[in-house]
Amino acid sequence: MKRDTIAARRAAATDDRRRHIVEAAVRAIEAYGTEAGLSAIADQAGVPRPHVYRHFTGKDDLDQEVGRHAARELSTWIRPSLTARGTPASIIHGLIERVVQWAVDHPNLYRFRARLGSPAAVDELVDALAAYLRAAGYDTRPPAYVVAGVIGLADAGILWWLDHPDETGRAALTDWLADQVWLVLADMLRRIGHPFDPDATLSPRS
Q1: Which residues belong to any copy of the HTH tetR-type domain (predicted)?
Q2: Which residues contact 204 (CB under 8 A, 6 or more apart)?
Q3: Over the stretch 191-206, which tens digit does the pLDDT of each residue have?
Q4: Domain ranges, ordered by start, for the chain
Q5: What residues pair up with 202 in beta bridges, in sequence order?
């Protein structure tokens, strides 16, 4: 029992140190960009440079943890939109609006997350869309590859806009992305034999 307690404490301490380094890396990326170096992370963490990777297998391991952290933060921010009531177009527009807002507030972290990808985001959006399908009377799940494509479409548009903000306004970007996402999803729904009425008001069903 004592050994188990000691092992549990050590594991908890390791998790805390990993979390501390990940949060420091997030601050460094927010401040200095996606290529923030080891020195910047060490400064944010308040540890010597050699200690940064002590609880990780290397840079890639830390990068993946930071990417997962960013994905969780974005997911938490957009989650209210995944259970919203409204027409398909209004629900999608509200979701895109929140994604763009998060990207504006955290441009470097958004870039970092998009570069690494997030399988968990695909799963969450598939679940959300399936809940709306159930509300419309369809007991099915949308293809994950289509949802992944929609995420890629939104990421590509937002990333381009972050680097070229003078090309269009934020509202216009949001409108365009929402329209494109709806077109892709509407086509997918028709292909699987479950078309949505664009004017119907939907509420997700668990």
Answers
A1: 15-74
A2: 82, 83, 128, 131, 132, 134, 135
A3: 999 888 888 898 887 6
A4: 1-56, 67-206
A5: 86
Q: Answer yes or no: pTM beyond 0.85.
A: yes
Tokens of 156: 């590509």
Q: Which residues of the chain have pLDDT under 70?
A: 1-4, 6-13, 206
Inter-helix orientation angle 144-163/170-191, to 10°: 170
Residue given tokens 């509407």 in the structure block: 186
Those residues whose C-beta lies under 8 Å from the C-beta of residue 169, and which sit 6 or more positions away, are none
pLDDT confidence of residue 119: 87
d(C-alpha 53, C-alpha 38), whole Å: 9
Does CATH place domain 1-56 in 1.10.260? Answer: no
